[in-house]
Amino acid sequence: MWKVWKDLGIKGHFEPTDSDWLNASYLFYDENQELVRVYNKDCVRLEKLKYDYQYSPLLWENARSIPPLVPFNMKSVETVKQVPDVKFPLKLDTITKVVVKRPANNRSEKDKKKANELLLIEGIKFNSDTFVKFDVLVNVQDDVSAISPEDSEFAGSFAQLPHNHRDDMLMTSGARFGLTELLEDIQAEDDEFILVTLVPKVWFDDVTIDEIKVELVPII
After folding, report:
1. What pTM did the predictor assign?
2. Which of 32, 38, 149, 199 could form a disulfide with 135 if both were Cys (CB 3.0 to 4.6 A apart)?
3. Which residues form the Polyphenol oxidase C-terminal domain (predicted)?
Protein backbone atom coordinates (compact mmCIF):
# COMPACT_ATOMS: atom_id res chain seq x y z
CA MET A 1 0.00 0.00 0.00
CA TRP A 2 2.90 2.35 0.70
CA LYS A 3 4.29 1.65 -2.79
CA VAL A 4 0.88 2.20 -4.42
CA TRP A 5 0.38 5.46 -2.51
CA LYS A 6 3.81 6.74 -3.57
CA ASP A 7 3.33 5.82 -7.24
CA LEU A 8 -0.01 7.62 -7.53
CA GLY A 9 1.95 10.88 -7.54
CA ILE A 10 -0.97 13.00 -6.38
CA LYS A 11 -0.02 16.61 -5.81
CA GLY A 12 -0.23 17.44 -2.13
CA HIS A 13 0.38 13.84 -1.05
CA PHE A 14 3.86 14.00 0.41
CA GLU A 15 5.82 11.81 2.76
CA PRO A 16 5.86 12.93 6.40
CA THR A 17 8.80 15.14 7.33
CA ASP A 18 8.08 15.68 11.01
CA SER A 19 11.02 14.54 13.12
CA ASP A 20 8.74 12.84 15.66
CA TRP A 21 7.45 10.57 12.88
CA LEU A 22 10.81 10.06 11.17
CA ASN A 23 12.52 9.08 14.44
CA ALA A 24 9.73 6.83 15.69
CA SER A 25 11.06 3.28 16.02
CA TYR A 26 9.85 -0.27 16.53
CA LEU A 27 11.49 -3.42 17.86
CA PHE A 28 11.46 -6.64 15.85
CA TYR A 29 13.16 -10.01 15.94
CA ASP A 30 15.13 -10.67 12.75
CA GLU A 31 15.74 -13.97 10.96
CA ASN A 32 18.45 -14.78 13.53
CA GLN A 33 16.06 -14.20 16.43
CA GLU A 34 18.02 -11.11 17.41
CA LEU A 35 16.22 -7.97 18.58
CA VAL A 36 16.64 -5.04 16.16
CA ARG A 37 15.29 -1.50 16.15
CA VAL A 38 13.81 -0.10 12.93
CA TYR A 39 13.13 3.62 12.34
CA ASN A 40 10.48 5.10 10.07
CA LYS A 41 13.10 7.26 8.36
CA ASP A 42 14.88 4.10 7.17
CA CYS A 43 11.76 2.65 5.58
CA VAL A 44 10.28 5.45 3.45
CA ARG A 45 12.49 4.81 0.41
CA LEU A 46 12.17 1.37 -1.15
CA GLU A 47 15.58 1.65 -2.83
CA LYS A 48 17.17 1.73 0.62
CA LEU A 49 15.22 -1.38 1.55
CA LYS A 50 16.50 -3.04 -1.65
CA TYR A 51 13.17 -4.34 -2.95
CA ASP A 52 10.41 -3.22 -5.28
CA TYR A 53 7.03 -4.38 -6.61
CA GLN A 54 6.02 -5.19 -10.16
CA TYR A 55 3.56 -2.67 -11.60
CA SER A 56 -0.03 -3.83 -11.60
CA PRO A 57 -2.96 -1.81 -13.03
CA LEU A 58 -5.30 -0.38 -10.40
CA LEU A 59 -8.93 -0.81 -11.45
CA TRP A 60 -10.06 1.76 -8.88
CA GLU A 61 -7.47 4.44 -9.64
CA ASN A 62 -9.83 6.67 -11.63
CA ALA A 63 -13.10 5.41 -10.17
CA ARG A 64 -15.66 7.82 -8.72
CA SER A 65 -18.47 7.15 -6.27
CA ILE A 66 -22.14 6.77 -7.21
CA PRO A 67 -23.73 10.25 -7.18
CA PRO A 68 -27.10 10.75 -5.44
CA LEU A 69 -30.20 10.67 -7.64
CA VAL A 70 -31.57 13.73 -5.84
CA PRO A 71 -28.88 15.94 -4.25
CA PHE A 72 -29.66 17.12 -0.74
CA ASN A 73 -30.34 20.87 -0.59
CA MET A 74 -28.26 22.59 2.09
CA LYS A 75 -28.66 25.99 0.45
CA SER A 76 -31.95 26.56 2.22
CA VAL A 77 -31.78 28.43 5.53
CA GLU A 78 -34.81 26.45 6.68
CA THR A 79 -32.97 23.19 6.05
CA VAL A 80 -30.11 24.32 8.27
CA LYS A 81 -32.48 25.40 11.03
CA GLN A 82 -34.16 21.98 11.07
CA VAL A 83 -30.99 20.31 12.35
CA PRO A 84 -30.82 20.49 16.17
CA ASP A 85 -27.81 22.26 17.65
CA VAL A 86 -25.24 20.01 19.32
CA LYS A 87 -22.88 20.88 22.13
CA PHE A 88 -19.23 19.91 22.30
CA PRO A 89 -17.70 17.78 23.58
CA LEU A 90 -20.19 15.62 21.71
CA LYS A 91 -21.14 12.25 23.19
CA LEU A 92 -21.38 9.77 20.34
CA ASP A 93 -23.95 7.33 21.67
CA THR A 94 -26.40 7.58 18.76
CA ILE A 95 -26.58 8.69 15.13
CA THR A 96 -25.70 12.39 15.24
CA LYS A 97 -26.10 15.18 12.68
CA VAL A 98 -24.01 18.36 12.79
CA VAL A 99 -24.23 21.40 10.53
CA VAL A 100 -20.70 22.59 9.70
CA LYS A 101 -19.82 25.89 8.01
CA ARG A 102 -17.33 25.78 5.16
CA PRO A 103 -14.46 28.31 4.98
CA ALA A 104 -15.25 29.00 1.31
CA ASN A 105 -17.76 27.85 -1.27
CA ASN A 106 -18.01 27.70 -5.05
CA ARG A 107 -14.22 27.37 -5.37
CA SER A 108 -12.70 27.60 -8.84
CA GLU A 109 -10.48 24.90 -10.36
CA LYS A 110 -7.54 27.20 -9.70
CA ASP A 111 -8.49 27.41 -6.01
CA LYS A 112 -8.79 23.62 -5.79
CA LYS A 113 -5.27 23.19 -7.14
CA LYS A 114 -3.98 25.45 -4.37
CA ALA A 115 -5.74 23.84 -1.38
CA ASN A 116 -7.62 20.67 -0.43
CA GLU A 117 -10.87 21.01 1.48
CA LEU A 118 -10.83 18.67 4.46
CA LEU A 119 -13.35 17.65 7.10
CA LEU A 120 -11.59 17.44 10.47
CA ILE A 121 -12.95 15.47 13.43
CA GLU A 122 -10.74 16.32 16.38
CA GLY A 123 -10.43 15.18 19.97
CA ILE A 124 -11.97 11.71 19.55
CA LYS A 125 -11.70 10.26 23.07
CA PHE A 126 -12.33 6.61 23.92
CA ASN A 127 -11.18 3.79 26.19
CA SER A 128 -8.28 1.85 24.74
CA ASP A 129 -9.90 -1.52 25.47
CA THR A 130 -12.96 -0.66 23.35
CA PHE A 131 -13.50 -1.38 19.66
CA VAL A 132 -14.56 1.94 18.12
CA LYS A 133 -15.95 2.47 14.64
CA PHE A 134 -18.22 5.08 13.14
CA ASP A 135 -18.99 6.16 9.57
CA VAL A 136 -18.92 9.76 8.39
CA LEU A 137 -21.54 10.87 5.85
CA VAL A 138 -22.08 14.23 4.18
CA ASN A 139 -25.46 15.71 3.21
CA VAL A 140 -27.62 12.67 3.97
CA GLN A 141 -31.05 13.71 5.15
CA ASP A 142 -33.03 10.57 5.90
CA ASP A 143 -32.11 6.87 5.68
CA VAL A 144 -28.43 6.64 6.60
CA SER A 145 -28.58 2.83 6.47
CA ALA A 146 -28.97 3.04 2.69
CA ILE A 147 -25.55 4.71 2.29
CA SER A 148 -22.53 2.49 1.61
CA PRO A 149 -18.87 3.20 0.75
CA GLU A 150 -19.88 3.14 -2.93
CA ASP A 151 -22.00 6.28 -2.50
CA SER A 152 -20.68 9.80 -2.94
CA GLU A 153 -22.07 10.91 0.43
CA PHE A 154 -19.79 8.42 2.23
CA ALA A 155 -16.73 10.37 3.41
CA GLY A 156 -15.07 7.49 5.28
CA SER A 157 -14.83 5.72 8.62
CA PHE A 158 -12.93 6.04 11.87
CA ALA A 159 -11.91 2.75 13.48
CA GLN A 160 -9.79 1.79 16.47
CA LEU A 161 -8.96 -1.76 17.54
CA PRO A 162 -8.98 -2.52 21.27
CA HIS A 163 -5.73 -2.74 23.20
CA ASN A 164 -6.25 -4.75 26.32
CA HIS A 165 -4.79 -3.30 29.50
CA ARG A 166 -5.36 -4.11 33.12
CA ASP A 167 -6.73 -0.63 33.65
CA ASP A 168 -8.84 1.47 31.30
CA MET A 169 -6.77 4.01 29.43
CA LEU A 170 -8.31 7.10 27.83
CA MET A 171 -7.03 7.59 24.28
CA THR A 172 -7.32 10.68 22.09
CA SER A 173 -7.22 10.62 18.31
CA GLY A 174 -8.55 12.45 15.28
CA ALA A 175 -9.55 11.92 11.66
CA ARG A 176 -9.62 13.91 8.45
CA PHE A 177 -11.55 13.27 5.25
CA GLY A 178 -11.21 14.80 1.79
CA LEU A 179 -14.18 16.88 0.63
CA THR A 180 -13.11 18.38 -2.70
CA GLU A 181 -14.22 15.53 -4.98
CA LEU A 182 -17.03 14.51 -2.66
CA LEU A 183 -18.69 17.94 -2.89
CA GLU A 184 -18.34 17.87 -6.67
CA ASP A 185 -20.06 14.49 -6.85
CA ILE A 186 -23.00 15.48 -4.62
CA GLN A 187 -23.38 18.88 -6.37
CA ALA A 188 -22.77 20.86 -3.18
CA GLU A 189 -19.77 22.99 -4.13
CA ASP A 190 -21.64 26.28 -3.74
CA ASP A 191 -23.26 25.40 -0.39
CA GLU A 192 -22.20 27.50 2.60
CA PHE A 193 -22.82 24.60 5.01
CA ILE A 194 -22.59 20.82 4.93
CA LEU A 195 -24.55 18.33 7.00
CA VAL A 196 -22.18 15.85 8.68
CA THR A 197 -23.72 12.63 10.01
CA LEU A 198 -21.81 10.34 12.37
CA VAL A 199 -23.11 6.77 12.36
CA PRO A 200 -21.80 4.47 15.13
CA LYS A 201 -21.26 0.96 13.78
CA VAL A 202 -20.53 -0.36 17.27
CA TRP A 203 -22.80 1.01 19.95
CA PHE A 204 -20.90 2.61 22.78
CA ASP A 205 -21.53 5.32 25.35
CA ASP A 206 -18.01 6.39 26.28
CA VAL A 207 -16.83 8.04 23.05
CA THR A 208 -16.73 11.84 22.81
CA ILE A 209 -15.68 14.32 20.12
CA ASP A 210 -14.27 17.78 20.84
CA GLU A 211 -14.72 19.49 17.47
CA ILE A 212 -15.92 19.05 13.87
CA LYS A 213 -14.81 21.60 11.29
CA VAL A 214 -13.86 22.13 7.66
CA GLU A 215 -10.50 23.63 6.68
CA LEU A 216 -8.62 24.47 3.50
CA VAL A 217 -5.18 22.87 3.61
CA PRO A 218 -2.61 24.29 1.14
CA ILE A 219 -1.20 21.87 -1.42
CA ILE A 220 2.57 22.01 -1.26
Report:
1. 0.78
2. 199
3. 88-216
